[in-house]
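Figure 3 (text version): structure tokens given as input.
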């Protein structure tokens, strides 16, 4: 079984900070992956999370449910 946590929120509410906090507390024997819905041209959050030990895949574009359905599925499959 794979545990999944969905972290959502508006721009600037602290999602990346919360994920970084969780990564710091993760057990050494676990491998964590993060699927990032990236809005901007440059994947800043993905780079920060990857530098802190997570396997990261980015989904470019807008809303996961109406714009990025296929890229979301591809990113999830890659993880």
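Below: residues designed for each position.
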């Amino acid at each position: 079984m794979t545990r999944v946590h969905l972290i959502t929120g508006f721009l600037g509410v602290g999602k990346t900070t919360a994920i970084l906090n969780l990564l710091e507390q993760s057990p050494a024997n676990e491998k964590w992956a993060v699927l990032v819905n990236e809005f901007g041209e440059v994947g800043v959050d993905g780079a920060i999370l990857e530098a802190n030990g997570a396997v990261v895949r980015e989904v470019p574009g807008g809303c996961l449910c109406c714009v990025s359905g296929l890229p979301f599925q591809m990113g999830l499959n890659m993880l």
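Residues 8 and 65 are 13 Å apart (CA to CA).
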